[in-house]
Amino acid sequence: MATGRTDPQRRERILAATLDLIADEGVAGVSHRKIAVRAGVPLGSMTYHFSGIDELLREAFTGFVDQIVAAFDVRLGQADSLEEAREAVTDVIHTLSEGPRRDLILTQELYTLAARRPEYRQLCQTWMRRSRGILERHFDAVTARQVDALIEGLTLHRALDDTPLDRELTRLAVTRITTAA
Prior knowledge:
This protein is an all-alpha fold. The chain is 76% helix and 0% strand. The protein is built from nine helices and no strands. The radius of gyration is 19 Å and the shape is elongated.
């Protein structure tokens, strides 16, 4: 294995290994030793790159959130009309709920941390503000907040339900929320 000076991707590998370990064992299963083994780095690299496990978790989850928001932004950014925005939201719900279980697990692990710890709650609040900002390109602020909650709820329900809503029912739910009363 290369040394820190000749291994510029070491930090990124540690962050990726952290997320993979969380997805496999939950936050409770995370340790410097397990992450180092997974990342294929010396244990000392952990404290060289991160002041502690909390900094490592925050950075790993921040990177995860950034990836989710970027994908959300790309999909919603392609919408040029209300109907296209509704279809984009439907796509997001189905992509997230049918996508890698890893992402669903990481999201739920982050939410659990946020329920207990203010610094993770802040990360989730920032994520929600960013998502709503993207949605507000297509919907008013109140509707954007409702759509954001719908995305979260339907994604979770679709991912965990034995008989999840089909695409047409998802589209209907999105249309109902985004139609002015």
